[in-house]
Amino acid sequence: MRNRLFFLILIPVVLFTTAFSLMGVDRIMLKMESQSLQSGKTAVVHAELFYQALDGKLITRMGAPLKQVMITNRQGELTIYDQEKHTVYRTQGLEYSSENNLIFFFLTGKTQDLGLRDMGFSPVRPEFKDGLLITEWIPPGSVSHLFSKIEIVHEDQLPIYAGYYDAGGNLIRRVYYSNFEIFADVVLPLTVTEFNYLPEGDSIVNRVRFSDVKTNRQAVSAWFDFEIPDDAHYLD
Fold first, then answer.
1. Which of 32, 105, 133, 220 is the most exposed place for a label (fewest CB within 10 A)?
2. Model confidence, pTM
3. Cα–Cα dist 153/81, whole Å
């Protein structure tokens, strides 16, 4: 549960890039609470996030039970420093990039497609229903083995829901965006609720709440300059 929780909170955590400078935000810091529920068990993680547009580096300081510091960048280089064990783990992948996250598209103004168009998805059958704009996005051949479609629902020009369907047409993931607020001309959802349906019939519910958002001159902390200690032990 602990390892799965880490990678679940990693998804909404990695959400800041140089696009901030284009949106009037050069640096940002905020607090995050992630609650994960599976099989009747709940895990809660608190964290603080620190991002600067200049180098595109995001530093996430996680509290109990993880007590780790996570550093990632645009290239998808992920470094995890365990403060208790004094160890460092490194890996790299596009899924870790600070530019490869759904919430990132709120920050870049790509709220119409949540970045799906850049991934090769094509919109079909947009329709209005009860004041909501519902759009289906069909995947390119390269990911058609993963998805049959992704559905996005907009209200007042803001995406409030995204539904992901596997190649067999089964709904496997639902994401709800809510509690929108404006910070330095950037609209952010302060609550993200996600339902992931597992093949064995179980599900994982993850709710992330952001708070105490500070930008630019108000964002002051020594954690923006955090570096891994020189004597830390690197894991293979």
1. 220
2. 0.80
3. 38
Domains of the chain by range and CATH?
Answer: 2-229 (2.50.20.10)
Task: For residue 161, give both structure tokens.
Answer: 């829901």
The CB density around residue 81, as the number of other CB atoms within 10 Å, is 22
- Token digits for 53? 């547009």
Query: Under a CB-based contact definition with an 8 Å cutoff, are residues 187 and 157 in contact?
Result: no
Higher pLDDT, 69 or 74: 69
On whether the CB atoms of residues 25 and 215 are closer than 8 A, the answer is yes
Q: Where are the alpha helices (DSSP H) in the chain?
A: 2-13, 19-22, 104-107
User: Does residue 64 surpass a pLDDT of 80?
Assistant: no
Mean pLDDT of 160-173: 95
Residue given tokens 């103004």 in the structure block = 109
- The answer to whether 156 and 178 have CB atoms below 8 angstroms apart is no
In terms of DSSP bridges, do strands 233-234 and 149-155 run parallel, antiparallel, or are they unpaired? unpaired
Q: 90-124: per-residue pLDDT in tens?
A: 999 877 776 665 545 665 667 888 888 888 999 99
How far is 178 from 188, CA to CA, in rounded Å?
9
Residue 152: other Cβ atoms inside 10 A: 23
What is the rounded CA–CA span in Å between residue 32 and residue 48? 6
